C-alpha cells in the first residue's frame, strides 16, 4: 500500500503541475496576443498618417484581423478538441509573431516620412520664403512633382500592414476557444471560474503593456536615428506627427514567438482535476478515452459536425445570445478602435498621451473586475438565475452612466477660416471655408497646406503665411513668427508653431471623462466571468461547447468585427474639416475634425446600438420567468423533464443577459 500511495501522490503532483503549467502558458499567450492587438489598435492613427489614407481604409485594415480569424475559427473550434490542443495553440502563437513582423516591414522598405509643411527643414530656402511676401514666389513642401505624385499614389505599402493583420488573426484563432475548453475539460467545475478569471486578467495585462508600449513609440519620431529631430517643425501633439509605430510590432513579434515554446511540451489530455488521486477513476478514464479514440477512427472525425451545428442553430437562447453579442460588439469595437483619435480631437491630447491615459484609467479596473467576478462566482456559488440578473442589471447601470459622457465635451479648436472667422467669431461649418481674408489676401499664401500656428490672440491659423506674418526668428519647433497682420492684439502680433491649447476647462472635462470611464469599466467587467461561465457550462452541451464558442466568435466577426470599423471610419471621415495634401495635390489623411459632430458619432451610435440590445435581453428574462431552474421546486412528474429542458434554456438565459460579457470577451480579443 505504501508503494501505491507514493505512486498516486507522484501522479497527483505531476498532473497538477501540468495543469498549472498550461494555465501559466495560456495566460502568457493571452498577454502576448492582446499585447499585439492593443498595440495595433493604438497605432491606427500613426498608420493613417504614415500612409496618408482615410479613416475608413484604416478601419478596413483594423477589421482585417477578424477576416483572418473567421477563416478558421469554426473549424479550429470543432476539430481542435479532437487534435492536440496545446500544440495547435503554440503554432498559432508562432503565426501571430510572423504577422506582427510583416506589419513592421513597410518602414524598412519605404523612404523617410515627409510631412506637408510651408517651412523648409533643409535650411536651403531663405527664412522668409514661406511667410507673407507680396508678389513673391512661394516655395512649398511638399512640391507638386508629377513623378513624385505618381510614385506616392501608387504606393501600397499599407498592404503589408493589412496582410500582416490577417495573418495575426489566423494565428490568434486557436488560442481562445481551445485554451478555454482545455481548462474547462480538466479543471474542477468550482475552480474553472477562478482559472478563467486569471486567464482574462492576462488578457488585460497584455493590453496594459501594449498601451504603454504604444504610448512610448508614439512619442518617438518615426525616423528617429536617421533624421535630425532638432530640425523638425512638428511635435507629438501635431496631427502630422508619426511615431515609431514599426518598433512595437517587432517587440510583439518576439513576445508571441517566445510564448509559443511551452505549448509544444504539454500533453494532449490530463486527468480531471480532483479525480487524479483515484486510481480506479484514472483507469476508467483511460479506458473510456481509448474507446473514444476507437469510435472516432470508426465514425470519422466529421460525423457529428453537422448535427452539432443543427443543434446550436435550433437553440433559440443561444441564437438570441449571438444576436445580442453582434449588436453590442458593433458598439464596442468602434469605441475601442477610435478612442485615441477621439481623445486627440475632442480634448487636444497627443497620440502618446491619449494612449497612455486609456491604459492607466481603463484597464486596471477591468482587471480588478475580472478577478472579483471570478471570486464571487466561486465563493457564493452564484446560480444561473442570479448570474443572469447580475449581468443584466449591472450592464444597464453602466449603460446609464455612459450618457454622462455627452456632457464632458470641449469646443472646436478655433482655427481662422475653418471653425472661426479671422475676427474670432465662430462660424457655421460645412458651408465653405473662407481661408483668405483682407489681412492675407496679398500674401500669395497656399490655401491647402496644413502647417498651423497659434497666434498671441488665442486663434490658430492654417499657416504662418495665412496669419499674415512677415518675419521669423529661431529654428525648428522654437521658431517664432512676428509682425502678423491677421493677429490683432494690443501688443506684438506674433505666433508660434502648432495649434493653440484648448485651455484649463477642457483639461478638466477630460479628467471627468476618464473618471467616468474608469467607473464604467469596473462595473461592466464585474459580471463578465459569471456570464461567460454560463455560456460555456450551461447553455451549450459539453460536447458542443468548443464549437458553440467558435460559432459565436465567427458571427461576431462577420457581422461586427469586420464591417464596424469600416462604416464607423467612413462616418468619422464625414466630419473632417480639412484634409492633408499629398505631393500631387490629392487629399491625404484628415488634419482636423468637427469635434461636435465627431462626438455625436463616437458616442451616439454606440449608445443607440447598445440600447437596442436590451430589448431581446429583457424579453428573455420575461420568457424564462415562468420556467423552473434546476433545483427549484417542481412537481414530481415534471421535475425531471423541466430539469432537462428548462434547465438548459433558463441557464442560457443567463448567457443572454450576460451578452455584455461576450462582447467584453470580443473586446479583449480585439485588444
Automatic annotation (TrEMBL):
It is a multi-pass membrane protein. Keywords: Cell membrane, Coiled coil, Disulfide bond, Glycoprotein, Ion transport, Membrane, Transmembrane, Transmembrane helix, Transport. One of its GO terms (molecular function) is bile acid transmembrane transporter activity. The chain crosses the membrane at residues 21-40, 60-80, 87-105, 157-183, 195-222, 242-266, 317-339, 354-376, 388-408, 512-535, 547-568, 601-624. It is found in: Cell membrane. GO terms for biological process: monoatomic ion transport; sodium-independent organic anion transport. One of its GO terms (cellular component) is basolateral plasma membrane. Residues 272-304 form a coiled coil. Residues 22-628 form the Major facilitator superfamily (MFS) profile domain. Residues 433-488 form the Kazal-like domain. It comes from the Eukaryota. Belongs to the organo anion transporter (TC 2.A.60) family. This is Solute carrier organic anion transporter family member. It comes from Otolemur garnettii (Small-eared galago).
Amino acid at each position: 500500500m505504501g508503494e501505491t500511495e507514493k505512486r498516486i501522490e507522484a501522479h497527483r503532483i505531476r498532473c497538477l503541475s501540468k495543469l498549472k503549467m498550461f494555465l501559466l502558458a495560456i495566460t502568457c499567450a493571452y498577454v502576448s496576443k492582446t499585447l499585439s492587438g492593443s498595440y495595433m489598435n493604438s497605432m491606427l492613427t500613426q498608420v493613417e498618417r504614415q500612409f496618408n489614407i482615410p479613416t475608413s481604409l484604416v478601419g478596413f485594415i483594423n477589421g482585417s484581423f477578424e477576416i483572418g480569424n473567421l477563416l478558421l475559427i469554426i473549424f479550429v473550434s470543432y476539430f481542435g478538441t479532437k487534435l492536440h490542443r496545446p500544440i495547435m495553440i503554440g503554432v498559432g502563437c508562432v503565426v501571430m509573431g510572423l504577422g506582427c513582423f510583416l506589419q513592421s516591414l513597410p518602414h524598412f522598405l519605404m523612404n523617410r516620412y515627409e510631412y506637408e509643411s510651408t517651412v523648409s527643414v533643409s535650411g536651403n530656402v531663405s527664412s522668409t520664403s514661406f511667410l507673407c511676401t507680396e508678389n513673391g514666389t512661394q516655395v512649398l513642401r511638399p512640391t507638386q512633382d508629377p513623378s513624385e505624385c505618381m510614385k506616392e499614389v501608387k504606393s501600397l505599402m499599407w498592404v503589408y500592414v493589412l496582410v500582416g493583420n490577417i495573418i495575426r488573426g489566423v494565428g490568434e484563432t486557436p488560442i481562445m476557444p481551445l485554451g478555454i475548453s482545455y481548462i474547462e475539460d480538466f479543471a474542477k467545475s468550482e475552480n474553472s471560474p477562478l482559472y478563467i478569471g486569471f486567464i482574462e486578467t492576462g488578457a488585460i495585462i497584455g493590453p496594459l503593456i501594449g498601451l504603454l508600449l504604444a504610448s512610448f513609440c508614439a512619442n518617438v519620431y518615426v525616423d528617429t536615428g536617421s533624421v535630425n529631430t532638432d530640425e523638425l517643425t512638428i511635435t507629438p501633439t501635431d496631427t502630422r506627427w508619426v511615431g515609431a509605430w514599426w518598433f512595437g510590432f517587432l517587440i510583439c513579434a518576439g513576445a508571441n514567438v517566445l510564448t509559443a515554446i511551452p505549448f509544444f511540451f504539454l500533453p494532449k489530455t490530463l486527468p480531471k482535476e480532483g479525480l487524479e488521486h483515484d486510481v480506479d477513476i484514472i483507469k476508467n478514464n483511460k479506458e473510456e478515452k481509448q474507446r473514444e479514440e476507437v469510435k472516432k477512427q470508426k465514425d470519422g472525425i466529421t460525423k457529428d459536425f453537422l448535427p452539432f451545428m443543427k443543434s446550436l442553430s435550433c437553440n433559440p437562447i443561444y441564437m438570441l445570445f449571438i444576436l445580442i453579442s453582434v449588436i453590442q460588439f458593433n458598439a464596442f469595437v468602434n469605441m475601442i478602435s477610435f478612442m485615441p483619435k477621439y481623445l486627440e480631437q475632442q480634448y487636444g491630447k497627443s497620440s502618446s498621451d491619449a494612449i497612455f491615459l486609456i491604459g492607466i484609467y481603463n484597464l486596471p479596473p477591468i482587471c480588478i473586475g475580472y478577478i472579483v467576478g471570478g471570486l464571487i462566482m466561486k465563493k457564493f456559488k452564484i446560480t444561473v438565475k442570479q448570474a443572469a440578473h447580475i449581468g443584466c442589471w449591472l450592464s444597464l447601470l453602466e449603460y446609464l452612466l455612459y450618457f454622462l459622457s455627452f456632457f464632458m465635451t470641449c469646443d472646436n479648436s478655433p482655427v481662422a477660416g475653418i471653425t472661426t472667422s479671422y475676427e474670432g467669431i465662430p462660424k457655421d461649418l460645412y458651408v465653405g471655408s473662407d481661408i483668405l481674408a483682407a489681412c492675407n489676401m496679398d500674401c500669395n499664401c497656399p490655401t491647402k497646406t496644413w502647417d498651423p500656428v497659434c497666434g498671441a490672440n488665442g486663434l490658430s491659423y492654417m499657416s504662418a503665411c495665412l496669419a499674415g506674418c512677415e518675419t521669423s526668428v529661431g529654428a525648428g519647433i522654437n521658431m517664432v513668427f512676428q509682425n502678423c497682420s491677421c493677429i490683432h492684439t494690443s501688443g506684438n502680433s506674433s505666433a508660434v508653431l502648432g495649434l493653440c491649447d484648448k485651455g484649463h476647462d477642457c483639461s478638466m472635462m477630460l479628467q471627468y471623462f476618464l473618471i467616468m470611464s474608469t467607473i464604467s469599466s469596473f462595473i461592466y467587467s464585474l459580471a463578465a466571468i459569471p456570464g461567460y461561465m454560463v455560456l460555456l457550462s450551461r447553455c451549450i452541451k459539453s460536447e458542443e461547447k468548443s464549437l458553440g464558442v467558435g460559432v459565436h466568435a465567427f458571427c461576431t466577426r462577420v457581422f461586427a468585427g469586420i464591417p464596424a470599423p469600416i462604416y464607423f471610419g467612413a462616418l468619422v471621415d464625414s466630419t473632417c474639416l480639412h484634409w492633408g495634401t499629398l505631393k500631387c495635390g490629392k487629399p491625404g489623411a484628415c488634419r482636423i475634425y468637427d469635434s461636435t459632430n465627431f462626438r455625436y458619432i463616437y458616442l451616439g451610435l454606440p449608445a443607440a446600438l447598445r440600447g437596442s440590445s436590451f430589448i431581446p435581453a429583457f424579453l428573455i428574462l420575461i420568457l424564462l420567468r415562468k420556467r423552473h431552474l434546476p433545483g427549484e421546486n417542481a412537481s414530481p412528474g415534471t421535475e425531471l423533464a423541466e430539469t432537462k429542458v428548462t434547465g438548459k434554456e433558463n441557464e442560457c438565459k443567463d448567457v443572454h443577459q450576460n451578452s455584455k460579457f461576450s462582447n467584453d470577451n470580443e473586446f479583449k480579443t480585439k485588444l
